[in-house]
Every structure is written in C-alpha cells, then in structure tokens.
Amino acid sequence: MLDADFFRRWMTATAASVDREAERLTALDSPIGDADHGSNLQRGFTAVVAVLEKEAPGTPGAVLTLAGRQLISTVGGASGPLYGTLLRRTGKALGDAGEVGAEQLTEALRTGVDAVMTLGGAAPGDATMIDALVPAVDALGDSFAAARTAAEEGAVATTPLQARKGRASYVGERSIGHQDPGATSAALLIAALAEAAGE
Amino acid sequence: MSDEQLVGIVLVSHSAEVAASVAELAKGLAGGGPVVPVAPAGGTEGGGLGTSSELIAAAAASVDRGAGVAVLTDLGSAVLTVKALLAEGDELPERTRLVDAPFVEGAVAAVVTASTGADLAAVEAAATEAYTYRKV
Questions:
Q1: Terminal Cα distance for chain B, rounded
Q2: CB distance from A29 to chain B under 8 Å?
Q3: Which of A48, A195, B102, B121 has the most C-beta neighbours closer than 10 Å?
Q4: What is the CATH number of the domain that holds A128?
Q5: Chain B contact set for A73 (CB, 8 A)
Q6: Which residues are the signal sequence here (chain B) (predicted)?
Q7: pLDDT-derived band at B4, boundaries 50, 70, 90
C-alpha cells in the first residue's frame, strides 16, 4: 500500500530530477518553444517541495491536490496548469484514503491524464506530454518500472511527430525531428514515481 | 443604473504591457457610459513574460461588482491557467466566465457592451462575435 510518505517521496524525487534535467528540458524547448520549460518546472516543483514540508498533508490525495495547486500558481507557463491539473485531479480521484493500492493509483492517474487531455485539447500523437503519460498509465498495471519505460519510449516517439498543440505547433513542420519537452518532463515525473517505489 | 450592475472585465496576456495597453484602448473606445471595471493581468508576478494565477485571481476580485466577470485571454498558458482556476471552483468570483474571443477586438466589444449595462451573457456574445469580423 502507498501512503502519504510515498507520494511526498514521488514529488521530492520529481523536483530533484527536474533540477538535474532543467537545462536539457530548456534546450529541447529552445528550437520549438519559448525556451523556459526547464526553468518553469524547476520553479514549480521547488515550490511544491516547500509547501509539502510546510503543510505536511496526511493523505495521498491531499499531497497531490496541494502539489497541483502549487504548480498552477507558480509555474507561469502552460506546463503549470497542465501538470497542476494532472496532480490535482489524480489527488481528488484518490479521495481521502490514508493508503491506496497500485490499482487505485493507476485508475486515479488515468482520471488525471483524461483531465489534462480535456484542458489542453491534446490527443495521443500531437507531440505533447500526453504521448508519455498515456502509455505510462497503460503500463502501470504491470509495474512502476514498466510505466517508466513506457513513458520514456513515448517521449522519444514524439521526435518524428509534428506538434499540433501549444507554442511548438506554430513552427509547423519544423517541429518534426525534435523530442517534445513536455513529453520529456512527463517521463521524468513517471521515472520519479518508479524511484519512489524503489523500482 | 448603479455601478453594481456592471459586468467586470479581466484581460489576461503573457505581457503586462499588452494587458495594460489593451485595457486602456478598450476603456478609451467605450466612451461616455458608466465606467466599466477593467483590470489587466499580464505577465508573471516577477514582471516576466508568462501567466500568473495570483494576478488573474486578484484582477477578477477587483472588478467583481456582483454582475459577473468576463475574462479574455491571449494564448497558451493564459487560456490554460484561467481554465484551471475555473476548475478549482473557489479561486475566481462566482459567475466568472472565460470568453472565447479575439483579445483586442473582443476586449473592445466586451467593454463597450458592458458600459451599456448589459449582462454577462450579452457581454460574452458581443466579445465572441468579434471573431466574425473579417479584415479582408
């Protein structure tokens, strides 16, 4: 069973990994976006770790809804409301249980990913974070490690795609050949989930 | 007509200057009627390019006279942040609506319409209708 501590570890591991990879995320965002994806997410997840320490929410659902709320208010770019909605809706779907099972987490994450698709209007194949998140949720039924691999493969698979959403969509065919920064950061989030689980 | 009946307008842009200038333009073109509460919410809190949910929430609270608030946005994170705040439920005044409209033309239409004492639905319709005006 997964408790509030597990979800805090997930967020802390995500923040650490975003810190490490911020420059790479921004470099991916430079040719097709506005070159701020790494610094925006770094600011957001630093704030998430700070607020989780300060308020110490006691349930998995409360950890994720608080983290999501913090991302919406601190990121400043489109990734804030998108990741914020992902975590908030996942947290809300977990309800107020003190511990949740892997199956419950999978279903809650699916709810969160659906909410992101509704908010951003993106579908699989549009070269967005969705291309990492959907396969990750599908693989989460097998194991956390399988979800990590699926997310990474999903992110790499955005390279030949033409971006159809967000700032990258304005550069049209020139987005082809670039791995999507949002799918890349989504893969970091899922890798941190596996790390929190010790896989 | 009392001030209480006027719809408030919030203009959300990635740039503080764009939001403030469009607010000035729209107010300037609204002319004689009662002064519509219009608040710009542009850029990040640090003064950079981007969107701030705090600035948006503060702007919406400042123009709320009880008749509803129409929010117009430019692109990308401005749209997504307002949608996410609306989904939160308690971040924006009751009867706050994200209006689907071109930013400059929609802002002028919204402010002019609101200055006639029109309700939120009429303000939204006028702003959205600005999309139908073709320039060539």
A1: 39
A2: no
A3: A48
A4: 1.25.40.340
A5: 52-54
A6: none
A7: low
B81:A69 CB<8 A: no
Q: What is the pLDDT of residues A153-165, one digit of tens each?
A: 999 999 999 999 8
Alpha carbon of residue B130 to chain centroid: 14
Instruction: State whether residue A10 is helix, strand or coil.
Output: helix
What residue ranges define each of the domains in chain B, with the CATH number in brackets? 8-132 (3.40.50.510)
Residue type at position A95: G
Asked if A72 and B81 come within 8 Å (Cβ–Cβ), the reply is yes
Nearest-neighbour CA in chain B from A99: distance (Å): 24
Average pLDDT over chain A, rounded to an integer: 95
Chain B residue with minimum CA distance to A85: B84
- Interior angle at CA A13, CA A157 and CA A46, nearest 5: 100
Question: pLDDT tens, A99-131?
Answer: 999 999 999 999 999 999 999 999 999 999 999
Chain B within 8 Å of A85 (Cβ-Cβ)?
A: yes
Angle A144-156/A130-140 helices, nearest 10 degrees? 160
Q: Write down the ipTM of this complex.
A: 0.84
Q: What residues make up the domain containing A192?
A: 2-197
